């Protein structure tokens, strides 16, 4: 009974006519579908068409911005474009479309890029940069190089060593003399070569290394070569005419008698002459300190690294083959440095 | 060309979790790898520190992952990572404003992890996290930090109380609250203290001191937080304790049974172990003596000074920015302090004068506060005008019934605490309201009447006094209490014990066939007592779960001359509470005093003549609880009110009282709801079968065939039933035969045996 009357009522409801009222919106029908939507932005897939071609400068800037792109290929292509622009299309002597100081911060993170193509292209681009400009921007670049040298992936370690080789060749004195450039980089070298402890330097040591081990085969040869270059710049015998002391020796003759060491009182010729005072940065510890003179560097080297390096070189020599030959370059630099130090009366 | 076989290690490129796993297993072999990763971290940190704001994920590995990795394996190489915690703390404290949210959280998590690995001590961790907690604008970080801080405090107090850490933390919170009274940063101190108070980690006076200072701040939120703690913190703590105590019980038998049946895996074995450990822990916890927890109100150092400053700062001063609700909270706290500690604040009662009108919003709260603030040391001169005002403003034929009943209730509550606030004429006037038409007013007036029947029946009219009170008056039992008169205390429930002993004695004598009220020889009884004493002691030495040794100078001292009369008169018992010590002194007094104090002596006769043995005390406890249960079960409403503990607050609801009765006729729904209120759920009264079925359903078991048949839709069975009628005789016979066969076999699936 009750249910049937209820059903009747429900049925009745379907046939009732909705009343329209003035000032009220019309009720939506039951089968109404809401098609409105909300979006933060609407993108129209149309290209902007302009008649004039973009200038080379704009193109350059555009490709610099593409360096942060998500896709590997795009980054690589952007780097390639920049390289060609730097090497070929630029008239010699003309300034870069963007200065090195703005380029380097975007380029440096690419050192740790996962894609091998990008990294190879990056090395090419770096080599194309004008050497004089790089010299002043070594300090911010070095942490990336060091991070690369200790990276878990062997390929990235290789790239980082390549970049370091380039840096040493282009701005050797800046590399070894900048803040943290000496001790920290040497630490990284030892870590790459696995020379830190007595056991790990032995050839019979269990090399339970994670990732592709870089301590065998060709990469080690390269690392040893770069290490030799690095040490040569840092503590090796100095070539004539390079560096401040040599310059002073040459310049001393040109000044007349009462004047001596005038250049010390002259305007400095480097870009950041007072950087060693570290007026605005974080306080540095021993590792992060700047070691500007050869004596300083040698003292630190003798105290912290000499033993490990000698041990490592010895074991590399015993390995023989290519590695042994490469180690001879290092030992030659070491010999030179030791000889110099003895001559200068330094404690060894 | 044959593909070179790759070792498992060579395949992975930059897999920090893999390295982490390997390091965990063999730290020595992987030290070079770890060193390399540590340099990697150092370089990344350098890069990050050069530009903290613009830190992006560089390459495959980010600083976040490196931090995570190093934090996880730091305990394997303490030499290399000795600076690591400090570096993390530096990053967090210097750059927490600009750090990426993920990195920030990772750093916090890593610090806590290092704390767990004991590479960092709690104090340092808290000193790093806490300043960030109060200064950071990020809500998520605050939530995270709060949780971590709380967790650290809990874990470092888990095994034993870490007093040193607690003290330093409390000092930090105290300084936070007191250093800047206008800022809302004190809220964090309040939140932390309240949480730790709730979990019974902080139960000392210093925590209360923090809250006290908070409630004297100038920031409204901080004030209210502090006040609310005092008003509700202890209740919250009790509830928390109850909650944790009635956690779901683990049925060990069931767990074992399940393991016996299911597949045996390591995981299940671990679950059984865990369950066993939990059961054991609970057992141990049950046997532990209950910790002494004083309520926050009792731990205050200077309640008088505190109440005064609260009153003058938040209520009296015109500069206070609190709104009415907040002021009411403060008032509640002040009056509760006054009532509890029997304080005297000069202007408190005159302050009430202004608010005692029926038009005042939430006036019942004011009335409750006033009642709370009255105690027997308040001069009646202070209270009398207030009582008079309530009577004039609230209680009249012209005012609404709810108002009148609220007024009467308030007067009753005040007089229960300070009877001298009432005078004879007013009382007789008010008692007349029990003839009112409204039920709520009648009840309230009756409450007042019965109160004064106990307190001072002389003020009532002769016909209102009732039987008991009149008899008491005649015998001189009921006398008016003078101002500040203190009743001599006794042992609570000692008369119950006496009564019970009397009954026992009677029973014994009845067994022996003697006259039940004849005098018993004392020696026998004495012997019994000593037996009880010894029995209990034996039990004590066996297991000491029932008894907690309370050391005090009122310990039992057994003299050599047991038979000596005087000695046996001397009360010796365990002094457990003030009441009992009070009783002791009172009992000593009785032995010395003259016969004038005979009544008192009667009351305390048992306590004065017997040494209460542990058995007696146990019985006493039992009788007390029994009496309490009986009182609860009793129908009388006002008994429950008088049973209220003096620590409990008086609420506005109690003042409103039975006003619901005078609110007119309730609707049907209201009546149903009211009727249902006290009743248990209908679901509790089910048949055994229904309950079993429910249990089965809950466990996800299947139904029997019988149940299926019973549940089957009627329409589905119709066809078969119809066709049954149409069967031929032969068919019927076949069916019956088949049925018989089946029954023999034991059902369709029965074991045929062949």
TrEMBL record, chain A:
Top-level taxon: Eukaryota
What are the start and end residues of every segment in region (Disordered)? 1-31
Name its cellular compartments: Nucleus
Q: Which residues form the Pre-rRNA-processing protein Ipi1 N-terminal domain?
A: 133-231
Question: What broad class describes the main subcellular location of this protein?
Answer: nucleus
- Cellular component GO terms, alphabetically? nucleus; rixosome complex
The similarity annotation says:
Belongs to the IPI1/TEX10 family.
Name-wise, this protein is Pre-rRNA-processing protein
Organism, scientific name: Aspergillus indologenus CBS 114.80
TrEMBL record, chain B:
**Region Disordered: which residues?**
535-596, 633-652, 664-754
Domain called SDA1 N-terminal: residue spans: 69-437
Q: Which GO terms describe its cellular component?
A: nucleolus
Question: Per the record, where are the segments of Acidic residues compositional bias?
Answer: 535-545, 554-566
Q: Where does the SDA1 middle domain start and stop, copy by copy?
A: 547-678
Q: Where is the SDA1 C-terminal domain?
A: 701-746
- Out of the domains of life, which is the source? Eukaryota
Any single Pfam family the record assigns to this protein: SDA1_C
GO biological process terms, alphabetically, are: protein transport; ribosomal large subunit biogenesis; ribosomal large subunit export from nucleus
Compositional bias ranges of the Basic and acidic residues kind? 666-687, 695-707
UniProt keyword annotations, A-Z: Nucleus, Protein transport, Ribosome biogenesis, Transport
Query: Would I find Transport among this entry's keywords?
Result: yes
Please give the function described in this protein's UniProt entry: Required for 60S pre-ribosomal subunits export to the cytoplasm.
User: Known PANTHER family for this protein?
Assistant: HSDA/SDA1-RELATED, PROTEIN SDA1 HOMOLOG
- What is this protein identified as? Protein SDA1
Originating species = Aspergillus indologenus CBS 114.80
